[in-house]
Amino acid sequence: MSVTTTVSELRDLLDSDRPPVVLDVRWALGDPHGREHYAEGHIPGAVYVDLDRELAAPPSAEGGRHPLPSLDDLQAAARRWGIHEGQPVVVHDDLGNTAAARAWWLLRHAGVTEVTLLDGALGAWRAAGLPLEPGLPPEPEPGDIVLTDGGLGITDADGAAELAASGLLLDARAAERYRGEVEPVDPRAGHIPGAVSAPTGENLAADGTFLPADVLRKRFEEKGAGSAKRIGVYCGSGVTAAHQIAALEIAGFEAVLFPGSWSAWSSDPSRPAAKGDQP
To answer: Which residues lie across from 191 on neighbouring strands?
Structure first.
């Protein structure tokens, strides 16, 4: 099962008799203007997806800043996006797919097998000299997709602690947040004790495409993935951790997601926090 679709493959698919639904998940931490960026120019026919409203439930101390949406809410959103049964889906953002991977993970978790990330995200489309469409198009004709639950593994805070102790728990945040030097949004600085730093950005080449599978495999083996019986990933709020899971899959590893991530862990005063560059 492929994780990515190249720009040339997407261009051909859009001209085929079975075109995919293209989802534009324009989002970045601290930038609430995704819809405006989409309106400035998007892949023709792409549907805007609001990460905060459609790919997450309302925030809470227990669930973190981006709890997983309910299956019913996700299915309603997927139908609004125009996804039909058996129709392929290609998702992207404008940030190396670090946000779009949330949609990829959720749809995979919900039983959609033909969902891929546009390798290189919107930057690759631009670099190929392909056109962008301005404006806010009308909503697509509703789809009929039926979603199911449990396609990918998840864990909670207790499970994350167990993975850190007896498996491999990867922290996908920037290294300075892992070390506890800065914490821009969550209640406490630091990391889950025993977690290994593996910043999401290191999954990508300079052009925003995923590194080759063998390079990613070596990267994760050096973090301990080769000998780990079970692998888990967390980040700030369960968004960029999904990108790490995509990179792990490209490398040949399976991993579970801790959706609450550091935002939920750090909100619980009973949970310890470690600082520094060591687990």
So the answer is: 274
pLDDT > 90? residue 29:
no
Query: Residues 235, 247, 248, 264: which is the catalytic one?
Result: 235
Q: Kindly tell me if the per-residue pLDDT of 30 is higher than 90.
A: no
Tell me the chain's radius of gyration from C-alpha atoms: 18
Letter string b/e over residues 51-61, b meaning 16 or more CB atoms within 10 A of that residue's CB: beebbbbebee
Tell me the whole-structure pTM to 2 decimals.
Answer: 0.97
Residue whose token pair is 């692998």: 231
pLDDT of 246 strictly over 90:
yes
Range of weakest confidence among 4-8, 32-36, 98-102? 32-36
Closest residue by Cα to residue 126 from 41, 234, 36, 21: 41
In three-state form (DSSP H/G/I as H, E/B as E, the rest C), the secondary structure along the chain is CCCEECHHHHHHHHCCCCCCEEEECCCECCECCHHHHHHHCECCCCEECCHHHHCCCCCECCCECCCCCCHHHHHHHHHHCCCCCCCCEEEECCCCCCCHHHHHHHHHHCCCCCEEEECCHHHHHHHCCCCCECCCCCCCCCCCCCCCCCCCCECCHHHHHHHHHHCEEEECCCHHHHCCCCCCCCCCCCECCCCEECCHHHHECCCCCECCHHHHHHHHHHHCCCCCCCEEEECCCCCHHHHHHHHHHHHCCCCEECCCHHHHHCCCCCCCCECCCCC
5: annotated active-site residue: no
